[in-house]
Amino acid sequence: MSRRLAGVAFALALTTAITALALVGYGTHAAVVTFELLAPLGVITVLAAEWWATNRQRAGGLRRQFVVVAAVAGLQFAAAVLLFAQLMFVSAHDAFFTVLVVLYASAVAGWTARLLGRAALDDLDAVRSTLTAVGDGRRDVLTGVTGGDEVAALAADVDGMVARLAGEEEARATLMAAVSHDLRTPITSLRLLADAIDDDLVDAAMRREYAARMSTHVRALSALIDDLFELTRLRSSDLQWTMEAVRLDELVADTVEAMRPAAGTIAVRIGGATPVAARANPEKLQRVLFNLIQNAIRHTPPDGSITVRTSAGDGTVEVEVADNGSGIAPADRARVFEPFYRGDRSRTDAGAGLGLAICSAIVEAHGGRIWLADAAVGTAVRFEVPAG
Questions:
Q1: Backbone Cα Rg of the chain
Q2: Are strands 267-273 and 305-312 parallel, antiparallel or unpaired?
Q3: Measuring CA to CA, how many Å separate 356 from each of 5, 255, 321, 353?
Q4: Bridge partners, 268 (sequence order)
């Protein structure tokens, strides 16, 4: 109802403006006749257009709607000219040729609108065809639409959506392949060990050794499943944590002290612990520190060292975990935070390749970021989170 009233108000306002021009140019009588003619015509046309817009699902395609709009405009012009000819004593000769001019102008305008609209309609057809192909499972299609109008912007959004779908499906397939590989190896070993025990192929001492190996594989499977579950939860939108002010320098000191026994002969030290506070979940942030230090331990030689530093930024706090190990190949640097991506497997034979992905998910859930910093020797991983 509000749209309909707005349309009527627009028609009456436009009629009033035209009437004012007639009053200035030809006097009161001409103004009154102009208002009496145009007001009903404008209101009827607007109401008809509102009805048409409300029931546009019955109108067919846009091409048919363009034809209807052109026809309505032509009829309105012709009706206005005929009414003026009858009520304002315009000669039949002048009225006839005026109607011809109006019809001619309407036809040319309709043809021009058709030419201009055809390109847009063709672009819409291309977008529709692309979406149909995507719905059928294809991911190698593009709309092919160029330009700077609204349809081109829509087409660009569709092309971006298709690219994201293709990337997500490729990542999902890669993830499934990696999960399958990492599950298959321990499961195959478990089956072989269980078959050997079940078939009485080993003595009691070897049976105990096989049972110990089975326990190792079970723990590896359990750790993998736990990491997958945590990564899935971290990437879900309904994740909620309790955030609080955390003394990051103290958290780093506690974590480094806890990791020293696992480091063995590798020196794990604090290179600089600026007293800084972060707005974070302490348990999750400590998980990031554990993962980064553990990852550094795996890639550092026995006589190497690992240094952890904290510093304050502009509204953020930053932590760096650096080692003097063999470093990461340039080709692998862009993908080290992807799940299961391990690059040179000779470097990363331990773990399933989820540690850095979990770190990235936790840091991003805090509103921060994580990256590989430049290092002359070894690897330096930095992350920052909002200051507390």
A1: 37
A2: parallel
A3: 60, 17, 12, 7
A4: 306
Of the spans 23-37, 170-184, 275-289, which averages the highest pLDDT? 275-289
Over 70: is that where the pLDDT of 193 sits? yes
Whole-angstrom Cα distance, residue 166 to residue 20? 61
CA atoms within 13 A on the CB side of 356: 24
pLDDT band at 345 (very low <50, low <70, confident <90, very high): very low
Please state, in angstroms and rounded to a whole number, the distance separating the CA atoms of residues 181 and 175: 10
Assess contact for 327 and 256: CB atoms under 8 A: no
- For residue 258, pLDDT over 90 is answered with no
Sequence-distant (6+) residues with CB within 8 A of 43 are: 8, 11, 12
The separation between CA 244 and the C-alpha centre of its own chain, rounded to angstroms, equals: 29
| Structural domains in the chain, sorted by start | 2-135 (no CATH), 165-234 (1.10.287), 244-386 (3.30.565.10)
> Which residue has tokens 């006839």?
96
Higher pLDDT: 237 or 250? It is: 250
Min mean pLDDT across 41-45, 129-133, 342-346, 382-386 is at: 342-346
Integer Cα distance of 144 and 75 in angstroms: 39
d(C-alpha 344, C-alpha 197), whole Å = 35
Return the HEC string of the chain: CHHHHHHHHHHHHHHHHHHHHHHHHHCHHHHHHHHHHHHHHHHHHHHHHHHHHHCHHHCCCHHHHHHHHHHHHHHHHHHHHHHHHHHCCCCHHHHHHHHHHHHHHHHHHHHHHHHHHHHHHHHHHHHHHHHHHHHCCCCCCCCCCCCCCHHHHHHHHHHHHHHHHHHHHHHHHHHHHHHHHHHHHHHHHHHHHHHHHHCCCCCHHHHHHHHHHHHHHHHHHHHHHHHHHHHHHHCCCCCCCCCEEEEHHHHHHHHHHHHHHHHCCCEEEEEEECCCEEEECHHHHHHHHHHHHHHHHHCCCCCCEEEEEEEECCCEEEEEEEECCCCCCCCCHHHCCCCCCCCCCCCCCCCCCCHHHHHHHHHHHCCCEEEEECCCCCEEEEEEEEEC
